[in-house]
Amino acid sequence: MAGCCDHKADFTGIDPVYKRILIAVIVINAVMFLVEMFAGVKSNSQALQADALDFLGDTLTYGISLWVIGKSLSLRSNIALIKGVSLLLMAIYVLASTFYKLWFSVTPDASIMGSIAILAFAANVLSVLLLMKYKDGDANVRSVWLCSRNDAIGNLVVLLAASGVWVTDSALPDLIVAAFLATLFLSSAKQIIQQARQEKKQALENDSCS
After folding, report:
1. How many CB atoms lie within 10 A of CB 172?
2. Can you give the pTM of this predicted structure?
3. Residue 169 burial by CB count (10 A; 0-12/13-18/19+): exposed, middle or buried?
């Protein structure tokens, strides 16, 4: 197949510094999942709970990302595809639970929402800064960057939701932000799945060249 072996190589994560950074980001996400889920339940905030689920998803998928570093392109693309699908399922769950809460909503505690959103934003900005150098890698590496970037954006809108809840004394801003986070998950899932499928195709082409 003419030209099938002439592909631009993406960064695959094979770098001791990157691995140490990824471990640090995994720890940050695991701690923030526990903190934010507890606060979300305590404050009755759907947005905080959705963001906490994102922290949990990131903790698990970053661990998988660390494990597949150095593995074959075919395996890495398959794992990235699984991560994209899991993000898609998370988005569907958040959307479904948000629509449910529209009928059975309790006004969240805006002060808890705001303080936890600030803490989560600081944690995610730290993660983004640590990963900034490695944002343009293969589907596996890029999925880590996209998730961290989304988390930082999500924390800002959760903070806006807290302000909206405080001003309106209503659960509606919280539910709107939870729905927004779900659409953000959908967008990232689409990007990860598309790149993973392209890399699976590339892996097949590389196999045919060998």
Report:
1. 14
2. 0.69
3. exposed
